[in-house]
Write a structure and sequence with these properties.
Length: 327
């Protein structure tokens, strides 16, 4: 087998002790490091270092009003930076480490860069469960600010090769190192819950289903991106977008375009999010299939309807943003 260009890139390191040590020292030196999590790959920086956090915004072309999630190794570490309430305690006890980000008030003595909050008085905190993310956090002994490791507006990466595709030029201001931990198991980003007011609010559906959260903390209000003042600045309508126009709720390809099926009625398409209609499998496949289909240069990608419960809510959220131009 010949080595692919991906495998020969100097920025790639393995998920072993040597790779983690190199990544930890790059972070301590203010560099950007892309790393796997159970949701998607993150583009990490020392969350206490203003210059390093600023470099994330620059590398992604991310608007500076859009705050970043801060990753820590444990609930104990999270308590250093944000104020917990009863809802946060319950949610963390059940879902942390895992695919949940909690927006909580910054503590008065919070040592995180103000840039992670982008002018808000809150921080989104996440405790990832992926063993490589955990090993990195414990190695560097720093909180790591990390948005998804894609350029702003593009489809999130679920493999190291997707990260490289965002910054093909090693001289560009992208990650200094990328830890290759294989494919992400969940494949959509974390669920973001705002706990800064007495109303529990879903800012972004994600890897933990809304139903599971409501079972613990009661009714959750769903924030919508067409609010005049979106609660989560990241809820821009156009996001997660392939270049190819995307159409939703389709039963087949449009005018000779591609069809991304879900379930047995695939219309002869060889692209299927989950032939068995399994929403976990569909979430895990979503971003890499969108990237693959986008690379084929067809005139359109039509996607089958996805049930809007459990992980289906996160899948539909990402698809509806990918398809903005179709509306
Ligand atoms: O699964 C994930 O969450 C991945 C992995 C790498 O952890 N990260 C991720 O980050 O998706 P990002 O930056 O692509 O999305 C973070 C979302 C954005 O919509 C942002 O606006 C919102 O969280 N957010 C972050 N901090 C916030 C805050 N203080 N208040 C409200 N929303 C916040
Ligand atoms: Mg993102």
């Amino acid at each position: 087998m010949t080595a692919s260009p991906t495998q020969s890139d100097d920025r790639l390191v393995g998920p072993d002790a040597a790779g983690i040590a190199a990544a930890g020292s790059a972070l301590r030196n203010g560099k950007l490091v892309a790393f796997p999590s159970e949701t998607v790959y993150g583009l990490g920086a020392d969350a206490t270092n203003d210059n390093a956090v600023a470099a994330i915004y620059a590398a992604k072309g991310r608007p500076t009003f859009n705050p970043l999630i801060v990753h820590v190794a444990s609930v104990g570490a999270a308590r250093q930076f944000v104020e917990f309430d009863e809802r946060a305690e319950r949610l963390c006890a059940q879902f942390c480490p895992g695919a949940l980000s909690l927006v909580l008030p910054r503590r008065a003595d919070c040592s995180l860069s103000l840039l992670v909050s982008a002018g808000l008085d809150s921080v989104a905190i996440r405790i990832p469960s992926h063993p490589v993310a955990q090993a990195l956090l414990r190695q560097c002994q720093l909180p790591i600010a990390a948005p998804s490791a894609n350029r702003s507006g593009a489809v999130s990466p679920t493999r190291a090769s997707h990260v490289l595709a965002g910054w093909p030029d090693p001289q560009a201001d992208g990650p200094a190192l990328i830890i290759d931990g294989g494919a992400c198991a969940i494949g959509v980003e974390s669920t973001v819950i705002d706990l800064t007011t007495p109303t529990t609010t879903l800012l972004r559906p994600g890897g933990i289903a809304l139903e599971e959260i409501e079972a613990l903390v009661g009714p959750v209000v769903i924030a919508t991106s067409d609010d005049n003042a979106p609660k989560s600045p990241g809820m821009l309508a156009r996001h997660y977008s392939p270049d190819t126009p995307v159409y939703l709720n389709a039963t087949g390809g449009k005018d000779g375009g591609l069809f991304l099926a879900f379930g047995a009625n695939d219309g002869g398409s060889s692209y299927n999010l989950s032939p068995q209609r399994n929403l976990r499998e569909a979430a895990a496949n979503l971003f890499s299939l969108l990237r693959r289909l986008d690379a084929l240069g067809a005139n359109s990608i039509s996607v089958a309807p996805i049930p809007n419960h459990g992980l289906g809510r996160a899948i539909n959220d990402r698809l509806s943003r990918a398809a903005t131009r179709a509306f």
